[in-house]
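Annual report, structural modelling task.

Input specification for the NI-FE active center complex:
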Amino acid sequence: MSETIIIDPLTRIEGHLRIEIKVEKNKVVEAYSSGEMFRGIEIILRDRSPLDAPMISQRICGVCPQVHGTGSVMALDDAFGIKPAKNGRIIRNLMLGSNFLNSHILHFYLLSALDFVDITAVLDYKGMDSRLIKIKEWIKSDIDSGATNAGSPFLPRYDGDYIKDHELNMHALSSYLKAIEIKRKCHEMLAIFGGKVPHCQTLVPGGVTCIPTVDKIMAFRSRLSEIKNFVEKTYIPDVLTIAKNYPDYFIIGKGATNFMSYGGFPEDEDNSGWLFPQGVLIDGNVSDFDSEKVEEFVKHSKYSSGSGLNPFDGQTTPSPFKDDAYSWIKSPRYSRNVVEVGPLARAMVSYHANSNNSLNILLKSALNELGATPESLVSTMGRHAARALESKVLIDRMESWLDELVPEGPVANDFKIPFVSKGKGLIEGPRGSLGHWIKIENKRISNYQAVVPTTWNGSPKDDDNKPGPFEMALIGTPVADYKNPIEPARVIRSFDPCLACAIHVMDLENDSVYKFKI
Ligand code: NFE
Ligand code: MG
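The model returned the following structure:
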């Protein structure tokens, strides 16, 4: 006898993701991941000037706009047949790095840690910190009013196996508050070169429009050093503490076990070297990435056509009521393989490519500290650890990129919009591999396709009926209490899905639906 649990929407912010799982004997046996929103930016871009693409495509998302802007100008560089100026490439990396740090810190503290930390510990707080007093009041009034799904940013919450140690919970709460301040610094840092956040103003084909003056470099460096201090002394230790308290989550939530990275943060103007290596890891073997092998499938997606096409020829033909379709997300596959993307994928590709880079050195020392094997990283907790560790690697490199900038030097190369052309921009965003593909005819956009990280990870079953990475990670996940499905929520949140969320629990036998926003 199986029961169906529906989590809809699932994330605390970031869009509409619906997860439906079938549970038998307290284990997930079947899973469906559905994107519940139609985006359509690709259609908006048709027939416009290619120069509009970096501005408009950033509006795909308020959390990761920078990677869309960067992928988009890289697609234009490619289509226009130009390379960025060195200063321009470095400033693009610095802006994208600022957004990575904001996104990773946001994800851990504001979106995920509350699945482990018991925020009600603050009810015992007797000190004078006005922020903690305020939080205590919010939570008290939520509890007094019987709220389960509204109120302060900390609710709703499940009855779950939260951390019991009072000191640890209070420490996590103080880290949470500090994280909000540090997130602001990340935004300020990006705005030094980007003009504003979100949706920066300074990305152009051939580079950027902002000049790296000495005062801008100094302003950036001082914020970066504060963020570095937080990542080293708070973020990484907090992730390791939670990991040590939840060893089961190094087993739960394995997922696709195949991984892909387009290469993160170009280290040269030819896009031939990256801070986070490029590659594909399938069945434990690393191979070179080949963009021709990327195809999208739509058998179970709400589009009427376009299965098996490379994104250059991709189609966006909405069909909301199509039979057997349960998601607005397409199913991208690499050589028809299901691959996971994101911080864990970057770590696994890097690890198996066996390069002696700083990410690998840090991974090895963290595994040592946790007494964990590289295999156990392929898990819910491994995704959190990989995200924290790559933040440190990124910060160290951002410091040296600042040294490589030529103050007041040129930031962009000239370009001409070609009459007919095409180009692609492949890059790593906080949540994984992002590609923008553009075709130009009559100096206008004739086709534009973006395949985003959550499309890879949150995809529905493909034309071969192979489940997507979220779906795979859910299979076998324990659910101790059907009315509090915190385990599947933890699994999916570890991917940092960019959609928005709640969970309904449906008891098929009694035909009753319990709704839980998580
Ligand atoms: Ni909206 Fe994004 C990242 C991109 S997610 S957050 O990272 O591109 O799919
Ligand atoms: Mg798309």
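DSSP finds 13 helices and 17 strands in the chain.
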